[in-house]
Amino acid sequence: MERFIFLDFDGIxxxxxYQRELQTRGEMGRDAIxxxxxxQAVDALRMLLERSGAQLVITSSWRTAGLAAIxxxxxxxxxxxxxxxxxxxxxxxxxxxxxxxxxxxGFTPGCRGLEIAEWLARHAEPDVSYVILDDEEDTLxxxxxxxxxxxxxTGLTPEDARKAMVVLK
Length: 169
Prior knowledge:
By secondary structure, this protein is an alpha/beta fold. It has a five-stranded parallel beta sheet with strand order 3-2-1-6-7, covered by helices on one side. A two-stranded antiparallel ribbon has the order 4-5.
């Protein structure tokens, strides 16, 4: 069975704790791409990927740079796993006037839950296993049991990764 991890960056891999730690040490908290990711959060993601065999789909606003840029980021920072895709981005919403080939009809505001639902409708089987890792509850009601809400101060922890494994089964 396919498994997917829908991953936000800010608050999940880019943490308040790590940015303050870097500042205290007098180190730059960013590179040419953006804020540096917390090594502890990256290790927790590595553990989750190794144990689940899930594929990554990026939901972070960083995805607006495009899939190629996200994959370059992943490679340049030696991050775990591979990025399979990014969700559609509807900051200002999208309008659908037909149900042909589209999961929604009408105005769909920039809700990550809707973006995830659209990605799943286009790319996954109906019974797919997935988890959403985010520091906000920007999901649909039917996705609530799939959300592991992350504390943006600490980012993804081993405990969060274990919770995600339970969701992925």
